[in-house]
Amino acid sequence: MAEGGSGDVDDVGDCPGARYNDWSDDDDDNKLQKVLCLVEMSEKPYILEAALIALGNNAAYAFNRDIIRDLGGLPIVAKILNTRDPIVKEKALIVLNNLSVNAENQRRLKIYMNQVCDDTITSRLNSSVQLAGLRLLTNMTVTNEYQHMLANSISDFFRLFSAGNEETKFQVLKLLLNLAENPAMTRELLRAQLPYRFQICNVSHYHSAPAIIIVLKGLWKGFVISQSPNT
């Protein structure tokens, strides 16, 4: 979709009213509908990128998350994950990340978690796409409900931690912390195959040292609970 194609000069296709810059007379629902139409219909990456940025900004507000979902926006944005354009893909992940704060949106977005996980692991190391994917997966694992979907990828996350730069390490740690605080995931974490040169204390980022301690405490707490005779 993002690789280009024929269309009008402004590439708005069949989106009514979308070719005009002045939407001041529209209510919020109509504005969001037009932006979603651009995301769905546009074949030009620069227009798609701009529409996704606008949608992501709107999705940062709680009252818009329900509207975007009710307008059918979740599958429209998720379809963009199939693009080969890394800039457009990153923007789509940012939109989904903002939308995923909503519990009902999370329930509907779970069907895309495996794809996001695979894309995140295989993306270029430390790339914007990889970081955006890690942030989305972190949001999706704030509660225990969908954490099991990442069980088979924990070794890959440790590999990213070992090989990545400080920002990647920090994002991976936030994800691992979510998993570590769930006793049901402790066994999967302990079974993970660690890279040969994995060093959990080689992060100099000022946020990372306390984050590592929290992860270790979470792992230990989960292990103790899992070994308790009352469980």
UniProtKB/TrEMBL annotation:
<dbReference type="InterPro" id="IPR016024">
    <property type="entry name" value="ARM-type_fold"/>
</dbReference>
<keyword id="KW-1133">Transmembrane helix</keyword>
<feature type="domain" description="Armadillo repeat-containing">
    <location>
        <begin position="30"/>
        <end position="199"/>
    </location>
</feature>
<keyword id="KW-0812">Transmembrane</keyword>
<feature type="repeat" description="ARM">
    <location>
        <begin position="72"/>
        <end position="109"/>
    </location>
</feature>
<dbReference type="Pfam" id="PF04826">
    <property type="entry name" value="Arm_2"/>
</dbReference>
<comment type="similarity">
    <text>Belongs to the eutherian X-chromosome-specific Armcx family.</text>
</comment>
<dbReference type="InterPro" id="IPR000225">
    <property type="entry name" value="Armadillo"/>
</dbReference>
<keyword id="KW-0472">Membrane</keyword>
<keyword id="KW-0496">Mitochondrion</keyword>
<dbReference type="GO" id="GO:0005741">
    <property type="term" value="C:mitochondrial outer membrane"/>
</dbReference>
<dbReference type="InterPro" id="IPR011989">
    <property type="entry name" value="ARM-like"/>
</dbReference>
<keyword id="KW-1000">Mitochondrion outer membrane</keyword>
<protein>
    <recommendedName>
        <fullName>Armadillo repeat-containing domain-containing protein</fullName>
    </recommendedName>
</protein>
<dbReference type="InterPro" id="IPR051303">
    <property type="entry name" value="Armcx_regulator"/>
</dbReference>
<dbReference type="InterPro" id="IPR006911">
    <property type="entry name" value="ARM-rpt_dom"/>
</dbReference>
<keyword id="KW-0735">Signal-anchor</keyword>
